[in-house]
C-alpha cells in the first residue's frame, strides 16, 4: 500500500463502532470501473458496492421514477448506464461530456426536453453552462440555445 493508503487506512480503522466505509465521487466523466481500479491501485481493499457515483445515483433515480435515460454524457460513462431500464418514458441525463457536447447530441437532448422529458435538477445547472457557451456561437446554434432555455424556464 502507498503512503496515502497507509495513512488513510489507519484513520479509517480508528473510526468508532466499525462504521461501514463508502467512497463517494462527483465524477460524471469516468466510469465506476475506472474509479474502482484506481482506488485498488492505491492499495484500498474496496469493491464496487462501496463506491458511490453520480451515474449510480442517476440510475437509481431513473428506476425509482420509471424512466429510461437519454444520455448527454461522455461516451466513457455510458457503460455505467447499461443496467438501467430500457422501456418507459425518457428523462435526460447530463454529465461532463466535454468535447462530446456536440450540436447533434445537444439537439437530440433538447428535442426530448421539448417533448416533455424531465431533466433532473442536478442536470439543469450543467446544461445551463452549455447553453451559456452556445450563446456565443453564431446562427442556428445560438437560436436553438435560446429556444431550449425558454423551454427549461417553463
From TrEMBL:
MF terms (GO), sorted A to Z: inorganic diphosphate phosphatase activity; phosphatase activity
InterPro entries to which the protein is assigned, alphabetical: HAD-like_sf, HAD-SF_hydro_IIA, HAD_sf
Residues annotated as signal peptide: none
SUPFAM superfamilies tied to this protein: HAD-like (SSF56784)
Sorted UniProt keywords: Hydrolase
Entry superkingdom: Bacteria
Protein's UniProt keywords contain Nucleotidyltransferase: no
Name of the protein in its database record: Haloacid dehalogenase-like hydrolase
Species per Swiss-Prot/TrEMBL record: Aliiruegeria lutimaris
Amino acid at each position: 500500500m502507498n503512503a496515502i493508503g497507509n495513512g488513510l487506512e489507519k484513520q479509517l480503522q480508528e473510526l468508532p463502532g466499525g462504521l461501514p466505509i463508502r467512497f463517494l465521487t462527483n465524477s460524471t466523466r469516468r466510469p465506476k470501473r475506472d474509479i474502482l481500479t484506481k482506488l485498488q491501485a492505491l492499495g484500498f481493499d474496496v469493491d464496487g458496492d462501496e463506491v458511490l457515483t453520480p451515474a449510480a445515483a442517476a440510475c437509481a433515480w431513473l428506476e425509482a421514477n420509471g424512466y429510461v435515460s437519454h444520455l448527454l454524457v461522455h461516451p466513457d460513462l455510458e457503460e455505467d448506464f447499461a443496467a438501467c431500464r430500457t422501456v418507459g418514458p425518457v428523462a435526460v441525463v447530463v454529465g461532463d461530456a466535454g468535447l462530446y457536447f456536440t450540436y447533434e447530441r445537444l439537439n437530440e437532448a433538447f428535442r426530448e426536453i421539448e417533448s416533455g422529458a424531465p431533466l433532473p435538477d442536478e442536470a439543469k445547472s450543467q446544461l445551463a453552462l452549455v447553453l451559456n457557451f452556445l450563446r456565443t456561437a453564431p446562427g442556428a446554434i445560438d437560436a436553438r440555445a435560446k429556444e431550449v432555455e425558454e423551454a427549461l424556464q417553463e
